[in-house]
Specification:
β9 (about 250-260) and β10 (about 265-275) form a beta hairpin. α6 (about 165-175) crosses α9. The chain has 3 domains: about 5-40; about 55-70 and about 140-385, Ribonuclease Z/Hydroxyacylglutathione hydrolase-like (Metallo-beta-lactamase, Chain A, 4-Layer Sandwich); about 70-140, no CATH class. About 45% of the residues are buried. It has 13 helices and 15 strands. It is of the alpha/beta class. It is found in: Periplasm.
């Protein structure tokens, strides 16, 4: 045997042996990780149990959960532009299109084409952007109305997110009477969960009816996002969430999560409620922090009635593009361990996930599949869910 062949044989043997050892170790660790002994070695959660009060009930109206209408167009545009790490403001999507094509967009070019029309003439602004943007009919948006009743009966109304398409969101606001509520200043604040297109870019639709509404943003917003707030004609009190927990009213708190998100977005905020006599309700926009991290944080940091998770609503970000990966099954199983009594999911939870929840016997509140929502397995556009009512 030649020296060259001997060296090759040695390399193959060492490589094969190492691979076998690593594979065996991984297999062993995998088996061990599911045993009680493994969990006994983990540090016990030190609970802080911050008392943020209690409320009587929470009601959510889904204004729009349909963030976009065609998955292939959305994914195709992102892929063509360079992938998930590409800055969202360069994708050449409305309202920041400049007519130059994929990956050639810019915040400055896009906003300059419509800035003088915001927020008063959204119809004209969107028509301009339709001519400059990729797949201009694909945008929809995510937004919901949250009504909270205090223990003394006082009612409060809030918006979580403001969608994407000026056209779609304006129609959706009118369908649910949000336009009138904003005009009459019945809605006390707008919470933007994160900077993504489908939750934030429809901001002028809210400001068209109330440009002084208190506005809450995560402190991870980029320069473009903060400039957009100004360019949309906002004149109100901008509140930057820079603490893990921000109390809003008794029984309601804003939770801040620092997490990198696709298309150069950073951070998400979600909401928590302590419903008297029932327990904790969690509401999210997309839940990019992950449903388990969301639940773990609430468990470790909040005090709530009966020490029980009662309900959840929103996007849970498990199969947003209607794909399925075996790891998602673990998330479905893990969610069941929290013992939620009412689950209202939609948006980036995905149809497949909702079906998995139902098949697992979870208490999913189903919808009506109206107004272009695609399935009755989750809460669609115009549907409502009550907690404690």
């Amino acid at each position: 045997m030649s020296n060259e062949k001997k060296n090759i044989s040695r390399r193959d043997f060492v490589k094969g042996a190492a691979t076998g050892l690593v594979a065996g170790a991984i297999a062993g660790m995998g088996m061990y990780s599911y045993t009680p002994m493994a969990y006994d070695r983990l540090p016990k959660t030190q609970r802080k149990l911050n008392d943020f009060g209690a409320c009587r009930s929470v009601r959510v109206t889904n204004i729009s959960e349909t963030s976009w209408f065609n998955n292939s167009h959305l994914i195709g545009d992102i892929h063509e532009a360079g992938g998930l790490l590409v800055n969202q403001y360069t994708l050449n999507w409305a309202p920041f299109g400049n007519g130059k094509g994929s990956a050639q967009g810019s915040y400055k070019d896009g906003i300059n084409s419509i800035k003088d029309l915001l927020p008063h003439d959204l119809e004209k602004a969107w028509e301009i952007q339709k001519k400059l943007s990729l797949h201009p009919d694909n945008p929809g948006g995510y937004s919901c109305l949250i009504e909270v009743e205090e223990l003394d009966g006082t009612m409060h109304k809030y918006l979580l997110d403001t969608g994407w398409s000026y056209e779609w969101m304006n129609d959706s606001f009118k369908r649910e009477g949000i336009d009138k509520m904003l005009k009459e200043q019945q809605i006390e604040a707008l919470f933007i969960s994160h900077e993504h297109w489908d939750h934030f870019w429809g901001l002028p639709v809210t400001l068209k009816y109330d440009n002084r509404i208190p506005l809450y943003l995560h402190d991870g917003f980029y320069e473009e996002g903060l400039q957009y707030v100004k360019d949309c004609g906002y004149k109100g009190d901008l509140k930057i969430a820079d603490k893990p927990i921000t109390p809003i009213i008794p029984g309601m708190a804003l939770l801040k999560f620092d997490v990198p998100i696709i298309n150069r977005v950073f951070g998400e905020t979600s909401l928590a409620f302590n419903v008297k006599g029932h327990g904790l309700v969690l509401i999210s926009g997309c839940c990019h922090q992950g449903i388990l991290k969301f639940a773990d944080f609430a468990y470790a940091n909040l005090k709530y009635d009966n020490d029980k998770f009662y309900g959840i609503y929103g996007g849970l970000h498990i199969s947003p593009f209607e794909d399925w990966d075996p790891k998602y099954d673990d998330l479905v199983i893990s969610l069941g361990e929290w013992g939620f009594e009412r689950i209202g999911c939609n948006h980036c939870t995905g149809h497949l996930t909702a079906k998995k929840f139902i098949e697992a016997g979870y208490p999913v509140v189903r919808g009506t599949a109206r107004f272009r929502s695609a399935s009755k397995d989750y809460l669609g556009n115009g549907d409502k869910i009550n907690f404690g009512c």
